[in-house]
Amino acid sequence: MKVAAILLVFAFALAVQAGFNDAPQQLVRFQDTQSGAFLSNVNAAPSLETTQDALFLSALYGLGNKINAFQTEQYLQSLRTRDNGYASFPEGSATLEATYNAVLSYAHLGQEVPSSNAVVKFVLGLVAEDNLFANTAGGRGNIKSTYHAVSVLKALDSVSSLPANVNSGINSALTAALTDASTGKYFAFTGVPAIKSTYYGVFISSTLNQDVVSAEEVGQFVVSQQAPNGAFFADLERTSLSFESSSLAAATLGLLKSYTETDPLTQVNTYALFDYCRMVTPDLTEAAAAHRAVAHTGHFADNFKFIVEYGGADTRGQVILQGTQLRPELVVRSFNGPSHSNLNAVLQYTLAGEAPKTVQMTWDNDGQKYIAFQGIDTSNRVGSINFEYEIVLDVVGVYPPVKFNQNAAKSIGYKINIVPTATHTITGSAINEGETVSAGTEFEFDVKLANKTHSNIKSGDFDVVFSVLDSSYVAIHEEVTSATGNADVFRFVYSFTESNIPSGDLIFLVTVKDSNGATYSNEAVTYKFTVPMIASDIQISKRELTLDDDLTVSFVPATFPDMREAVPLSAINAQNERRKFFLDIATTSGDVVRSPPGVYSNGRYVFDVPVPSSYDSLGAFTLSFRYESATGEQIDLDNYDSENQEIFEEPLSFQVNADLDAEVVEQPSGNSFHYGNEAVYRFRVKDKLTGSTVGMGTRGGVFLALSHFDEAKGKSYVSTKLPAQRSDNDDLVVNWLVNPNAVSGKGSLRLVAEGAGGDDIPLLVNGKAFTSDVEIGGDIVENFEVYSTSDFYSSQTAFVVQFDLTCEGTPLRDVKLRALVYYEGEQIHSFPVGVSGDSYVTSWNSVHLKSPSGEYTVKFFREADQQRASDNEENKQKQLRAKQREAELTGEAFNEREFLASLDTVEVEPLFSVSIPHNQVSRGGLPFSSHWLVLVPALLAFLFFDNIKRQYRKGTRQ
User: Fold this and answer.
1) Domain termination site, one of 508, 529, 550
2) In Å, how far are 791, 825, 907, 915 from 822, measured between CA atoms?
3) Gap between the Cα atoms of 153 and 104, Å rounded
4) Gap between the Cα atoms of 285 and 27, Å rounded
5) Domain endpoint, select from 612, 643, 674
6) Which range marks the domain in which residue 235 is found?
7) Which region among 110-124, 291-305, 440-454, 922-936 has the lowest average model confidence (pLDDT)?
8) What's the CA gap between 127 and 191, in Å, rounded?
9) Based on the structure, what is the number of domains in the chain?
10) Is-contact 309 346, C-beta < 8 A?
């Protein structure tokens, strides 16, 4: 059963993916190899309507070469009748609906309709007495046939041939059908659902009149038809959802875009619509409707990959070498298919200082891409060049045409070749690029500029700028050499003499700029500078604060290169603001709770930190500082005592105090509780220092703790600790559902407050601590079921224990338990117990060979007891290490076993235990390898498509 369920989910996931993606990707599998027509699924017969759907997908995604288009065109020709209409099947009678599907099929193929004037004449001959169109000669006029007629005339560019009286009659029918709804207006035609009627009405109105009456109200109605799952209801009663109604709704809103002040599609939940469409079944007709709907949303572009190139490998970088000939090229692919050939691509490019130029890109069938045949010459040009591509996809059924935009920017400049030399002045040793340098290093850089035709450019109308940047990208040195009339080699020398910059990268940047400061090209050489960093001259406004107070901390950043003298960082005017320093405020246990950034002011970095009125702010905190480089490298600063010229041994700290006073508003009348009882405690807490209510925050808070005294150990321990929640009137409420987390027997309830780091904050009720002696009791009843695998078809052995706990018939919820598994007296596993409503479950699995026969015992412990035992063991180990160090220092003999035996041990009893009898599975796994779950479907798919391919080749030879 479990394997079947997994396979069912796997198959469903594949079906969902296949329905949306594979329909356009594998169009050929839907094509009948005999007729060239398409079928919607394996159980359906080929049809003209489905062929139109398939060719729509082909045109939408540029997949014409994935189908046998020639055979499809022959199929369409076979449907032409003597009266110049089209039938649904060869030798059938012509209908307007079939003619509509045939004409649109030709449009999707990108082919002219044969003798299109005769087709127009056939359509015009189907006008009924009411001036609407009928599906067949002599039939009754209806809105569906009228839509088909107008669509055909529009596709054949013959709308103007419609007689005036017919145009007037159609408009009268549209006016009469426009109906008020609670959410706007819609078109109501007899026997046609509201969304389809509205689509017909809007399409016909926009085609015949270039206008839509009450467009805003119609758009509001269509938007209101969207369901929470993203689909659109087809009917006014909102009972029917479909991919067809969703695609018609999206198309209607697309048509209305031209007649409304705001785009009505922006009011649609397109994310939900997209998710709904992705669930389409693997049926070609439904897949076409789903893709038609998505084509009207911004998610449609996700199905395409845009590749922009400029005619060669030397044009792929950000900087284009001056003199390079650029030839913009564009490839647009869908579903990893061929480049889409049915697009209108226009390029507008702008060279620095010049007006934009527009180029129509042309489809190159040999290269399967769009090319701007008129190249762009970059000789004697420098500066930026921006490219803006507008790509239009015009497919019948998607309104308005889809526009894709792609932007790119490059810079025309010189190639910069830098030859660096770094030498330490004392040792004389050479330092390679990328290695670590220190103060006392001499640098020399020989720079050559080149373009496409010259390898050593020395002069021109530009400047060569040499900059030295620290790890914050702050310029600590800069010099400019004008190339006007220059005849010398570009050479720059720099002496790194002081360790007054932050640790990290040391960057030497060469930039070529014009007289206006615009950059042509740049190149950098990087070394590493590593030095201890400190926070010197630290100033803290106050060490003792209250809630709603303000803390101001500042410091002077410095380096400590020789661990003797602090070297303040260089001040480079406003550029110091680029250097990022953070104040890390942490609890005494080391958890960082806040990290405000510093603001540079007169050589110092200042941190203004408000202290909000919440338990997060209470207690003791430590202060430390951190530097972040421009590349994101984090460097901790030591706190430096500038007065004594040494590193602080203890962390800097401050304390936020409160005088918390509580009033007990509600508490249980008795002090004896059974498991399953509900006990409510309500308090009002104020800070007497500020007179304000303290917010809960995300750390710390007020807790009701249940402690017990262990007489054998002479110590107290806590079994239950319940956080208080704030009510609407600022009271603190603890709603205690007594469960086995609380140890049975006598105990004491205490009201405690904690700060962000778990610090105890005094909390008094009537001047003293709140305590209440209680007694916990009740018999816990366990009702459990156990299971272990006996089926050799499963790949592993699974063990499951499911149970519920009750006391006097009341379910016990939210008990925190841990399960320890024993086999033949030895512990083999430890797992937390999962909670689901009133039930608890723990499970584990292992290979059959490691699950021998026998009895497995599962003991369930309270997590509080387990934690108490763990804490006790950790404390024993600490005492042992301390005693060992003491013995080492004094040279005394030390008996480790005897010392551990003298320490207290916490013995924890399980809440209850269960046994699982198990017979080992004799042989494991599926009757076949799990790899076949992947290989078999893949093999079947290969054989299926290979068979279609062979049939296709056979058909084309015939």
Assistant:
1) 529
2) 23, 6, 17, 9
3) 11
4) 12
5) 643
6) 163-296
7) 922-936
8) 20
9) 6
10) no
